[in-house]
């Protein structure tokens, strides 16, 4: 810790310097207030011991000038006998403490160590506040790569405006986290954030979910129900997998966005809603527009600001911090004490392509922690848990010419991929459909078609 001593008495400067240097402090000295102020602002000491009565710039004036110039070090005033009133005045102006002459080495060290402890505590509190602020600010997003930092920066920029946002990227890249970040940094942060997966709700129920219904609107509608648009009034509605929205609902969604009002199923009256929409998709909407599967008017309405999230395989520098983030998370959730991944394990994580992106990595870290019997997760365990690409290459090499049916092998591979996704997600079909880049309805159909036992 660096200490500056300001005193016009060379004997005092020398004696204090010897005491502090012997205790390991880095010591600077100045012989008057003006020299002390210049040294303090240039060297940035942690603690300053300053005499109150000095030539050129007395102690109280030094203190005022130091604070006005932005000095942050703790100042301890050295006072002569009978100058207690000046010392108290100095503390009112921002000095931390005072030391009365004559003083012993123990008295000087006691005051300095109290100040040192206070300074260290202040720094730790500041560090923790900054850490908590960043975690809240970025809604749990771990961004080390330039691609992810750019996406976060764009989300920050657009958040304060009411524009509709379209978040694109493969399944598992963190689209909902970005949507939440946009909401958390917007003027709507105090209102609701309502997420809905457009591909996970059966088509015959989706309109009622989004817009609500009145009693008797259809069989089973035993009472009025508020839709998600009305629930999100004043806040943000996150429409995930908007590319799965049926065309008849695309028209109604477009009308809601353009007119700012919704009509419940079975009702003749429209209700005004104030909702900021953030949409997301893993599909190629431009291609769907060309194939007339997605309405161009709706596409242009939601694609005001686009935030694209790169797949994890294109931002491998995010893998180590993400792995540590998930390790810390599951240490808390599972009440474990895993220290991390060893060098070999981390290399294998970096070499893997992560087709399921961040979501797959999170699931993998949890599985590895549960199965590892050591404090540190090793490369051998990681190698055993990660899928191998060698099996497919080897199988292709031994195929005969009459076994090269793309259709037959595509179906076989699709079945294996679906089974693998269901294994990774422990049978959670919604999460499996996201990993597979399939709609929920398509996944259910294929599970039945392939007779998969889940």
Structure description:
The model is unreliable at 132-137 and 389-395 (pLDDT under 50). It is elongated and about 95 Å long. It has helices spanning 10-22, 33-43, 59-68, 84-92, 105-137, 146-159, 175-184, 203-211, 228-231, 247-259, 285-290, 296-302, 319-333, 343-351, 357-371, 379-385, 390-397, 406-424, 429-436, 440-449, and strands spanning 2-6, 26-30, 47-51, 74-79, 97-100, 165-169, 193-197, 212-213, 225-226, 236-240, 261-263, 270-272, 276-281, 305-309, 340-341, 376-377. The protein folds into 3 domains: 2-131, Rossmann fold (3-Layer(aba) Sandwich), CATH 3.40.50; 146-310, P-loop containing nucleotide triphosphate hydrolases (Rossmann fold); 315-449, Orthogonal Bundle (Helicase, Ruva Protein, domain 3), CATH 1.10.8. Strand 11 and strand 12 form a beta hairpin. The protein has 454 residues and is α/β, with parallel strands linked by helices. The protein has a 5-stranded parallel sheet with strand order 2-1-3-4-5, sandwiched between helices. A 5-stranded parallel sheet has the order 7-10-13-6-14. Helix 2 packs parallel to helix 3 (59-68).
Provide the descriptors you would attach to this structure in a database record.
454 residues; alpha/beta; Rossmann fold; Helicase, Ruva Protein, domain 3; 5-stranded parallel beta sheet; 20 helices
Gross CATH architecture of the largest domain = 3-Layer(aba) Sandwich
Average the pLDDT over all residues and give the rounded result. 86
- Please give the count of helices: 20
Structural class: alpha/beta
As an assembly, this protein is single chain
Shape: elongated
């Amino acid at each position: 810790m660096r200490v500056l001593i300001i005193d016009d008495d060379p004997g005092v400067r020398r004696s204090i310097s010897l005491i502090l240097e012997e205790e390991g402090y880095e010591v600077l000295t100045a012989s008057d207030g003006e020299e002390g102020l210049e040294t303090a602002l240039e060297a940035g000491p942690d603690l300053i011991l300053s005499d109150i009565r000095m030539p050129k710039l007395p102690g109280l004036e030094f203190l005022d000038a130091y604070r006005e110039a932005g000095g942050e070090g703790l100042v301890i005033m050295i006072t002569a006998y009978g100058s207690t009133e000046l010392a108290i005045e100095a503390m009112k102006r921002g000095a931390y403490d005072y030391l009365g002459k004559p003083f012993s080495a123990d008295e000087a060290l006691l005051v300095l160590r109290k100040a040192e402890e206070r300074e260290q505590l202040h720094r730790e509190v500041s560090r923790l506040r900054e850490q908590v602020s960043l975690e809240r600010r970025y809604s749990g997003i771990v961004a080390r790569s330039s691609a992810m930092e750019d996406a976060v920066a764009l989300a920050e920029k657009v958040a304060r405006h009411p524009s509709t946002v379209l978040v694109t990227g493969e399944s598992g890249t963190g689209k909902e986290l970005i949507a939440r970040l946009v909401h958390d940094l917007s003027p709507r942060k105090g209102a609701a954030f309502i997420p809905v997966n457009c591909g996970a709700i059966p088509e015959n129920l989706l309109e009622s979910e989004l817009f609500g219904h009145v009693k008797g609107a259809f069989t089973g509608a035993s009472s009025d129900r508020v839709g998600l648009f009305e629930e999100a009034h004043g806040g943000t509605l996150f429409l995930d997998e908007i590319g799965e929205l049926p065309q008849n609902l695309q028209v109604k969604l477009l009308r809601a966005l353009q007119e700012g009002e919704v009509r419940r199923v079975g009702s003749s009256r429209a209700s005004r809603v104030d909702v900021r929409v953030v949409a997301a998709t893993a599909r190629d909407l431009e291609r769907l527009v060309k194939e007339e599967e997605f309405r161009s008017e709706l596409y242009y309405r939601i694609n005001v600001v686009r935030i694209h999230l790169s797949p994890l395989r294109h931002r491998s520098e995010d893998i180590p911090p993400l792995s540590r983030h998930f390790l810390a998370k599951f240490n808390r959730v599972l009440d474990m004490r895993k220290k991390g991944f060893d060098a070999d394990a981390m290399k294998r994580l970096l070499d893997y392509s992560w087709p399921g992106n961040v979501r797959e990595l999170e699931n993998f870290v949890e599985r590895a922690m549960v199965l590892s019997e050591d404090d540190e997760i090793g490369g051998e365990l990681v190698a055993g848990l990660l899928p191998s690409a060698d099996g497919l290459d080897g199988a292709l090499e031994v195929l005969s010419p009459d076994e090269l049916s793309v259709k037959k092998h595509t179906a076989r591979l699709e079945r294996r991929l679906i089974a693998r996704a269901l294994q990774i997600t422990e049978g959670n079909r919604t999460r499996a459909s996201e990993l597979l880049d399939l709609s929920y309805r398509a996944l259910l159909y294929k599970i039945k078609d392939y007779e998969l036992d889940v």
